[in-house]
Design the sequence.
């Protein structure tokens, strides 16, 4: 099970109720059954393709059976084609962006609509990742989709600020998931020698524990993060547990956001 499952498990342990979504019905049913083994767990599962608007609407309808919508976590994502831009298939490239960015847009859009209709000041947590903060050669579809999620987060947070809805995104770090097997299968010729070596090293160490992004997500959904919105959180590195003690510094600043660097930011006065 991946990051989405771990987030659902953490929410249930914190006393929440969960509606799961995934495209693959067998894996979804297995995840639901495993989560229902937790004491007192209330879990629904709805097969969903997040790039299909009707599927997304049907998913949110299921939240009514659990007492309303207070938090949304979107963790669906794919690497897409691996290799230099000049060699990847355009249709595969676009399909990855469609899943990673357009699917996120549909989920976030519907979440905001439902929360606004119900007058619920809920929390939405989207999943960014590699390539959002730094270039990610040979993974351009993934990188472009994920950096788009960050800008979607920042922009949507401003649009819904007056409703009390909060929108943040999380970079989970190098969590061991099925995606990394695609890197190994692609090999050095497509993925690049440096990243294949890094992948092998991280896999050998066990990577970032999946509990790290799961706990980050639970924090952003909770009342502890009530004044935090529009932020891009690197789960393993950003000491988010301390953020409630620094709200005055975070609010109204560009901390934990994506911004353009100009010469004066680096002490240069020639611009």
Sequence:
């Amino acid at each position: 099970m991946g990051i989405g499952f771990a987030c659902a498990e953490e929410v249930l342990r914190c006393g929440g109720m969960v509606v799961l979504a995934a495209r693959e019905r067998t894996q979804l049913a297995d995840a639901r059954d495993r989560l229902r083994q937790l004491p007192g767990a209330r879990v629904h599962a709805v097969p969903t393709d997040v790039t299909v608007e009707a599927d997304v609407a049907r998913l949110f309808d299921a939240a009514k059976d659990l007492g309303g919508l207070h938090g949304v976590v979107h963790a669906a994502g794919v690497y897409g084609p691996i290799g230099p831009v000049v060699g990847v298939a355009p249709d595969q490239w676009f399909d990855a962006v469609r899943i990673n960015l357009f699917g996120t847009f549909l989920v976030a859009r519907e979440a905001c609509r439902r929360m606004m209709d119900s007058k619920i000041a809920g929390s939405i947590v989207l999943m960014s990742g590699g390539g959002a903060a730094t270039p990610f050669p040979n993974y351009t579809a993934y990188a472009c989709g994920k950096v788009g999620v960050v800008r979607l987060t920042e922009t949507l947070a401003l649009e819904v600020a007056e409703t009390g809805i909060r929108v943040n995104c999380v970079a989970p770090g190098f969590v061991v998931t099925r995606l990394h097997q695609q890197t190994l299968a692609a090999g050095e010729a497509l993925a690049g020698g440096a990243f294949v070596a890094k992948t092998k090293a991280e896999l050998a160490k066990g990577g970032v524990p999946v509990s790290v992004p799961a706990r980050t997500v639970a924090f952003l959904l909770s009342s502890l993060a009530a004044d935090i919105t529009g932020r891009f959180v690197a789960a393993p590195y950003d000491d988010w547990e301390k953020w409630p003690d620094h709200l005055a510094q975070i609010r109204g600043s560009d901390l934990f956001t994506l911004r353009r660097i100009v010469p004066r930011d680096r002490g240069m006065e020639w611009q």
